TrEMBL record:
Provenance organism: Pyricularia oryzae (strain Y34)
SUPFAM superfamilies xref list: Thioesterase/thiol ester dehydrase-isomerase (SSF54637)
Signal peptide positions on this chain: none
Protein name: Thioesterase/thiol ester dehydrase-isomerase
Low complexity bias: start-end ranges: 151-166, 255-271
Polar residues: bias regions: 8-18, 439-448
Database matches in InterPro entries: HotDog_dom_sf, Mitochondrial_HTD2
Molecular function terms, GO-annotated: (3R)-hydroxyacyl-[acyl-carrier-protein] dehydratase activity
GO cellular component, as recorded: mitochondrion
Region ranges (Disordered): 1-21, 149-172, 252-283, 427-448
Amino acid sequence: MKAIRSISWRTSRPSQQHPLAGPQRALLLSRYVSTNPSPETNGDFAARLREEMLARPPTWIEERFLSPTRSQLLDLALADYLPADAIHDRLIGRKPSALPPGHHLVYFPPMLAESELLPDGTDPKHSPGQGFSRRLWAGGSLEFTHRVHSRPVSDPAPDSPPGSDSEPAREHKAVISADKLRLGSLRCACRESIADVTVRGQPGNEKVYVELLREYGYFHSVDLQRRETFRLSIIERRTLVFLRDEEVKMDVAKSQDQTTASSSDSNSGNNKKVRAPAPHKPDYSFELTPSRRLLFHFSALTHNAHLIHLDREYCRASEGHRDLLVHGPLSLVLMLTALRAAAKVVGPARAEKHIQSISYRNLAPLYVGETMRVCVRHTSNAATEYPATGTKRSTDSWEIWIEGPDGGMAVKASAVTMSGPKKYKANLKKNRAGDHENNVSPGNQEFA
């Protein structure tokens, strides 16, 4: 077990292959954690697997310069699939200074060479080991952080030198500001770690749930050297599920049988299940049909080599799917985009209204070439009091979901948005005309 814990994963020099990568690493893990336990040792297997995976060191991924290019390329990739009112240019202007919600997903990619990937193109640091080759994105959450700090509201007398006894004390008040990742920023980083590991199911048919914690923000050089917590902007959790190879083989055989039985029916597909529709009608929605080009563009932007998004034959022969799968992160980007349009979110650079959090679950796969509908519904509004600032802010709750071609829910999410106080919004509206005339983005605004 000590040998496993001493592994240090490289994150910033992709040209140098890690000595314990790919098949070699899987072989090493198999020596310490058996992935084919007998029924009487299943509890021990779960405990040992959890201990080993939680002991894996965190990964640091640096972005020395948060280039606007990748965010712009994501906008271009989605431009032909979004309605006009959901285009980012319409929401935050043509020169946004802050990263739009969800766009962090095309930054901080896995820093791995091709030889370090598993055979299906995924990251070995997330895998339980041999015997669990199929990886599913089950869901996750995002939290956009805010901080309370003190701001002076009065200036000292001009004839009083700083620090003098005659200098009047400044008045301060607490304000809330959003620590957004900003395009063009220097020294941004992501710290990824395994937060939890759970084994469920009967012996021989286990599922391994791996919860990843990804923390995004700014750092100083000393923070990076010490691998300490830095100023956070986004806290993301991802839940991955790994299935046993035996279950995958059964799914492949079942899908082939269904394909043969339904070959005369052009409307039926293998592994196709009818999902329950949403219980309510949406307040806002749009439809799109993802193409192979869109999936390729998103895979390239995220440095994602998972074959389920790229190789149709692999999907059918090795995973039991009828076609290429839409990325879980791409579904998340689409839901955040729809929410911003529905909630009239002005954007992270203008803090009149912003997304505070979102949590989601992937219920069924979405496939390339099949129509999907992104839906948003407003559920409640409440005034939230912040004692530190002495102000109240309006918070809104939302339901978001994505329907597959049969109208059933494939993804389900809930989100919270927050509005600034009336005084702030009045000042924002007053100054907005001047901002547009000068094409200036006010940047990281404070909630006074």
